[in-house]
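Schema walk-through. Below, the input block comes first and the output block second. Nothing else is stored per chain. Lengths vary across the set, and this one has 235 residues.
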Amino acid sequence: MIKAMIFDFGQTLVDSANGFRTAEKVAKEKIFNTLLQDGKNMDSETFLNKYRSIRKSFHDSSNFSRVAIWKTVYDNFDHQIELPQLEQMEIEYWDQIKHLTKPFPETISVLETLSQRYQLGIISNTQGQKTEKNHRMALFPEIETFFDTIIIAGESGIPSKPDPQPFKLCLKQMKVNPSEAIYVGDDYRNDVSGSGDAGLKPVWLKHRSVQRNWPEHNTTALIIEDLSELLTIEN
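--- output ---
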């Protein structure tokens, strides 16, 4: 018997793809131009390959701090930069993403229906957004109103997904067992594998409106292309 449905936030309830693409482009150009002004002799391909390699290594370890990523990039090219500058860059980065983030067209209506059937929760990796009134979800009160339980993993001593702890903490607060909960997310490692390893029933959202090269995995998870497909799930 399913009693709870728990969601990832970014790229699951809201579409941030354009925001991330734009913010990443702006950040990379700013760092590259700074290095050129510093007299570094390199072409854009060399820079981009190193940038992407460093970013991937951080993401693979579930560390999404842009300050840490950019500091490592600058260090790799022997450029000294002050922490306040990196923190200001990160503020501008997330502001750009927030400005270009919007709920998927079906999000509100689906949540309205699901809230009449299940408890609803969110587990989101921090990715640099602030908690409490400043976290990204707070920008969407029409979404947040459906959720009594919101876990920001990666802050306050809570490890990031795919660690099982944020899933267990969410279930504890909702007072449901893992087998009584469905978890919906777009990221295979963090969401599908993470929730499955914690005993929840994973649903992999590959939203049809998101332009993305989805990884190939053999999985028993339910795969959907639109949140409205959740309405057809039976206990």
